[in-house]
Amino acid sequence: MRFPSEPFKIKVVEPIKRTTREERERLLREAGYNLFHVPAESCYVDLLTDSGTSAMSDNQWAGMMLGDESYAGSKNYYHFEAVVRSIFGYRYVIPTHQGRMAENLLFSTVVKPGMYVPNNIHFDTTRANVEHQDAEALDLVIKEAYDPHCDLPFKGNLDVIRLEETINRVGRERIPLAMITITNNSGGGQPVSMENIRSTRQLLNRYGIPLFFDACRFAENCFFIKEREAGYGETPVREIARELFSLGDGCTMSAKKDGLVNIGGFLSLNDERWTQEITNMLILVEGFPTYGGLAGRDLEAMARGLEEVLDEEYLRFRISQVRYLGELLDAAGVPILKPIGGHAVYLNAKEFLPHLAQEQFPAQALAVALYREYGIRGVEIGTVMFGKRDPATGRTIHPELELVRLAIPRRVYTNMQITYVAESIVELYGRRDSIGGLVMTYEAPLLRHFTARFEDVTPVGVISDQPGR
Ligand SMILES: *Cc1c(COP(=O)(O)O)cnc(C)c1O
User: Fold this and answer.
1) Atom of ligand 1 nearest to the CA of 98
2) Domain count, the chain
3) Which of 81, 176, 222, 462 could form a disulfide with 93 if both were Cys (CB 3.0 to 4.6 A apart)?
4) Which residues pair with 265 in a beta bridge?
């Protein structure tokens, strides 16, 4: 079946409210047209992020009741450690409250000022944690990753030639480790092939540089390998994961993604000396090494989530649900980023709203319109998030792409709700000319997308024939 139906049934329901267009219009005004500031309760379908938004299974909830909240040596830690070792294969397992703490512990231990960390594309928190050590975060993804129309099976691959050039340019001693993000979140949730990881490993071996994975969506990446890479069609995803991680020396993980939990993360690695130093820091900033900033019950939920995420019925549904949304949009001519990634569909706002200049924040305007008209919340990934001020002129330097990311939470929405999202967007696309631009009225000096405020400059009454929903 091309789009398999849900491999689960619903035991507990969380009601969602329908708001009217008038209410949403008011909420938007109060929020300064920033969707981070509208109440989640007012969103009919909330696609802001797939991070920490998963629905846990009955098995995970049952595990929550078995939380051993002992300060040291909780039984849930031993279970968690055994599960992580069995999937990832590294010797040491260090729990953290989320992914960025794993990054912080790793980089504050091994990265020194003036060093370089290559990656396919650093996720925001990964980049920020490298830069916090006065080191440089280098994005070395293949150049096709930046072309929204280029349809490649493994568009998250690292450019191995550029990696070697980089090593020769800056010197091996200034690269404490290299990273690969699977799937490549910032590049559209695109997977990395086993072959690419193997060649990266071979190159790094010649220079003695360790390889770490940013493993947040490892199961989705491994499922893409099974679907797309020659020789893996019959291999269980769990074995693909074992093989993939055997090519590295460690990983950082936000279990809020493929851990199927609402909070949690970890760092896992083989190096004993690094582990000692990291553990000392962990005790200072997170907690004792057998809980690392989490409750025993959280560790249990994470252990069970990591097992469940490798269920291939689940993964087939998961990847297909995202693809289902993308294909409905694509079939109706709505411009989206290709190919469709593992956790989200990205609307190409420059092509959706060609009548808006980048100065008018087309992706933000599109995200606002989608919420105003249909109660659907996505997130802008464009000038608001990545635009930079030229220090000399004060003018904005715009990013190449203006995108609205529609991230699909795991096991949360039914395909009928996804159909609603697709039909809404197709309808909005039909009257895209009526969407006006925005003016930014406030911006913070750092990470401005979280707190920016805007004013709507659409002439009043342009979209007036909408049934209130
Ligand atoms: C979410 C994410 C992180 C950070 O994890 P948090 O749990 O949000 O701290 C790091 N890398 C990637 C690729 C991510 O998607």
Assistant:
1) 7
2) 2
3) 81
4) 96, 254
Q: Are 366 and 403 in contact (CB under 8 A)?
A: no
Q: What is the pLDDT along the chain (469 residues), one digit of tens a residue?
A: 789 999 999 999 999 999 999 999 999 999 999 999 999 999 999 999 999 999 999 999 999 999 999 999 999 999 999 999 999 999 999 999 999 999 999 999 999 999 999 999 999 899 999 999 999 999 999 999 999 899 999 999 999 999 999 999 999 999 999 999 999 998 899 999 999 999 999 999 999 999 999 999 999 999 999 999 999 999 999 999 999 999 999 999 999 999 999 999 999 999 999 999 999 999 999 999 999 999 999 999 999 999 999 999 999 999 999 999 999 999 999 999 999 999 999 999 999 999 999 999 999 999 999 999 999 999 999 999 888 888 888 888 998 889 999 999 999 999 999 999 999 999 999 999 999 999 999 988 877 889 999 998 865 544 544 443 3
DSSP 8-state symbol, 74: -
Tell which of 263, 286, 308 closes a domain.
308
Distance 50 CA to ligand 1 centre (A): 10
User: Which CATH number covers residue 327?
Assistant: 3.90.1150.10
63 in Cβ contact with 217 (< 8 Å)? no
Atom of ligand 1 nearest to the CA of 185: 13
Q: List the structure tokens of 289.
A: 């090494």
Ligand 1 center to 189 CA (angstroms): 12
Whether 351 and 225 map to the same domain: the answer is no
